Amino acid sequence: MTQEEIRELFIQGIDCSQVVTGRFAVWMGMVEDDARKMSSCFGGGMMCGETCGAVTGALMVIGMNFGHSRKGDQEQKQIMSEKVAEFKRLFLEKYPSCMCRELLGHDISKPGEMDKVMEKGLLLQFCPEVVDDTIRILEKIL
Description:
Layout lengths: L2 H9 L4 H8 L8 H7 L4 H7 L3 H14 L7 H21 L5 H5 L8 H7 L2 H20 L1
Helix pairs in contact: 1-9, 2-3, 2-5, 2-9, 5-6, 5-9, 6-9
């Protein structure tokens, strides 16, 4: 998936978390629409500038592939924890934070801040780069 394809999905209303989970839907044993629905509330840092949607999407992918679900399954929980730590380490090698507002330099939960993000072109330039890097990190660790 190219940054241009990611940008086009953004223009069509698909958020960062949805791009990530949609890209790995088959790998998670899901259809793309369901993966996107599952992650639809997480774009824009859960719609309030918190944890980057690309990161939360990645964590959903890691959870679906390596998560534990049975009581007492500490071995699988450890595997998942190691994958999460590896993802975060690689992400933080490239970016200073996992927080949307820190990455963008604007707190989109505040009035007028999303307008500034749009005026600066961050949504269609910077965010596709973050999503692309997130996908590449996931491809490396999965």
